[in-house]
Design brief:
Layout lengths: L9 E5 L3 H12 L3 E5 L3 H10 L15 E4 L2 H5 L4 E4 L3 H11 L9 E3 L12 H8 L8 E5 L4 H5 L4 E6 L3 H11 L4 E6 L2 H24 L3 H21 L10 H12 L4 H10 L4 H6 L6 H16 L4 H11 L4 H9 L12
Parallel strand pairs: 1-2, 1-4, 2-3, 4-5, 5-6, 7-8
Antiparallel strand pairs: 6-7
Length: about 350
């Protein structure tokens, strides 16, 4: 897994949205000739002709070393690293279609967040399911508090790279580490991915609380109890609870629940203002992963018998038509209990 000389290094990014574009810019800054695969022809043209993704990240000009293609084989040719940034609910179909075109013996890093509706699997688990065994020792994930726009603008960002083998995690860490992009490493893939998925659901609840006008106290309580839910679910899947106190848990939760740049928080905020969900989603260019993920997390909590009342409330408001005020009333009316009964 040693790196090639800087002049010959190539990276591939599979996904031409804002996050994929930001990661491509990062890799170019790190000395890689980087190709983005994009589904949309207009994105490919914009990047190749005007060196900017005018559809998804118009504020951030791209380095000359970034190009785009509509062909997966062309994108991954000679790549020493492949970053997979396909939304979780579409990831399995994409990997199944292109599994024979991916390079072998190079890191394949999933950078998406979520849990698949049908199988209740995380992106890393989907890759293990769909890719042949020759790829399995090279799979990793990247997560943490990282808005695409800020990464693309070179603002300081901290993330975590996780893989079952520490040597692979450290190899990916070296590839993505930049002047303003600091990567930590972990071997707790499950904990990292559960945090990255569930925080989007909690962000919808915090946005709804803010939009409805419930105040700062309510948001702080929602975030803290949301962290408890994330931790319970991760531990039930075999993760280390300390992972959820780190960048991919608490760090990403704080970012996503408090910033207007968060798509998931804005979905909740607009719901809190009384706007219908279909209208909100129809107006968005990019995917708010928390909407679909709320189904998965709710079902997974039921399957694993993990108590997740905030997640249940979000699921009921989004998918069963429950009124927001009723959902909050039920949350506040739950029986009194100790704060940390789960880890005694």
């Amino acid at each position: 897994m040693g790196q090639e000389s800087t002049s010959s290094r190539r990276a591939a990014v599979l996904g031409g949205g804002a996050w994929g574009t930001a990661l491509a810019r990062l890799m170019a800054d790190n000395g890689f000739d980087t190709t983005i695969w994009a589904r949309e022809p207009e994105v490919v043209r914009s990047i190749n002709e005007r060196h900017v993704n005018e559809v998804f990240l118009p504020e951030c000009p791209l380095e000359p070393g970034v190009s785009a293609s509509g062909s997966v084989p062309e994108t991954v040719q000679d790549a020493q690293c492949v970053l997979v940034v396909v939304p979780t609910q579409f990831l399995r179909a994409f990997i199944s279609l292109h599994r024979d075109e991916l390079p072998t013996r190079v890191p394949i890093v999933t950078c998406s967040k979520g849990i698949e509706n049908e199988t209740l699997q995380t992106p890393y688990e989907i890759l293990r399911d769909e890719l042949p065994g020759k790829y399995h020792n090279f799979l990793a994930c990247l997560s943490g508090p990282s808005f695409a726009k800020e990464v693309a603008l070179g603002l300081p960002t901290n993330v975590v790279v996780a893989a079952p083998r520490m040597d692979l995690a450290e190899s990916v860490q070296k590839l993505v580490y930049g002047k303003t992009f600091r990567a930590y490493v972990s071997t707790d893939v499950l904990g990292v991915e559960v945090g990255g998925a569930v925080k989007n659901v909690i962000a919808i609840s915090c946005g709804a609380s803010d939009g409805y006008g419930f105040g700062h106290n309510a948001r702080a309580g929602m975030m803290t109890r949301g962290l408890a839910e994330m931790t319970r679910l991760a531990v039930a899947k075999g993760a280390n609870p300390l992972t959820l106190a780190g960048l991919s848990g608490m760090g990403d939760l704080v970012l996503t629940c408090t910033s207007d740049l968060s798509r998931n928080r804005m979905v909740g905020f607009r719901l809190g203002k009384g706007e219908p969900l279909d209208q909100i989603l129809g107006s968005m260019k990019q995917v708010a992963e928390g909407v679909a993920t709320s189904r998965s997390v709710f079902r997974l909590s039921e399957q694993l018998q993990v108590e997740m009342p905030i997640t249940r409330a979000v699921y009921q408001v989004l998918h069963e038509g429950k009124e927001l005020a009723q959902a909050v009333g039920e949350l506040m009316g739950r029986p009194a209990r100790t704060e940390h009964p789960d880890f005694k």
